[in-house]
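Hello,

Our lab assistant flagged a job as stuck in the queue for most of the afternoon. It eventually completed. Since we weren't sure the result was trustworthy after the delay, we are filing this so someone can double-check. Below is the sequence as submitted and the structure that was eventually returned. Let us know if re-running is recommended.
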Amino acid sequence: LATALIFEQKGEGAWKDSGRNDMPPLNGVFVSPTGKAVTAGMGGIVLERTVYYWEELPYPETDADWHAVWIDEEDGVWVAGGNLGSIAAMNNGTVLRYAK
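-- returned structure --
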């Protein structure tokens, strides 16, 4: 089973693994001009960077594997994807928006 790694660098410092040990593979990442960061991936996982850690955002029960993530000008988080586990399901796309 594959797991994801998230590495961050503060200024000129060393790279640091800041992810969790149990993260599924991640497919998309976005950092807004204000520095807000989000990532999304397999099994419907969506993570938002807080001051201290990557927080998992709640999501509806879905078979969606998120392919892309974006933050709009109102700080809403958008994810898009589908089911990568089945060629037949690739025509069932999903878009989800988290609004504040």
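-- support follow-up --
The delay was a queue issue, not a problem with the job. The result is valid. The chain has a mean pLDDT of 85. The chain is about 0% helix and 40% strand.
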